[in-house]
Amino acid sequence: MVGEDVHAGKEAVIDCVLDIQRWRNSHRLKPNAAKSEVIWLGTLQQLAKLSQADLTLSIGDSVLQPSAVVRNLGVYIDEHLSMEANARHVPRLVFTALHGMQTRSSDANSVCLSVRQTRGL
Length: 121
Hints:
This protein is mainly alpha-helical. The protein folds into two domains: about 1-80, no CATH class; about 85-120. About 60% of the residues lie in helices and about 10% in strands. The chain has helices spanning about 1-25, 45-50, 50-55, 85-120, and strands at about 55-60, 60-65, 70, 75-80. The strands form two sheets. The chain has a two-stranded antiparallel sheet. β1 (about 55-60) and β2 form a beta hairpin. The longest helix is centred in the C-terminal third of the chain and has 37 residues, at about 85-120. It is flat.
């Protein structure tokens, strides 16, 4: 029974992906297969029932291997929906943003200082 459910689920996902590909083609958009990811969500017990063959998706010439963590709209999602992956990435993003703000601020201060020195001459 589990195998049939997995097969039906995979077929439904493949049908959706093919619909998206047709829409992209009709709008002259080219998908980047190298950036495509697939993730299976479920409890530890549910995911343990799936074989490696169950987890891979074959769409056209591409074979998508499952990822444990994917990024969608800037949010990192793991296969158990625990948000641990997102919690690990957010501090890094905040630090990078703050560092960038500090760099731009110091650049702006040095420009203002050089303008003041030029006016004083």
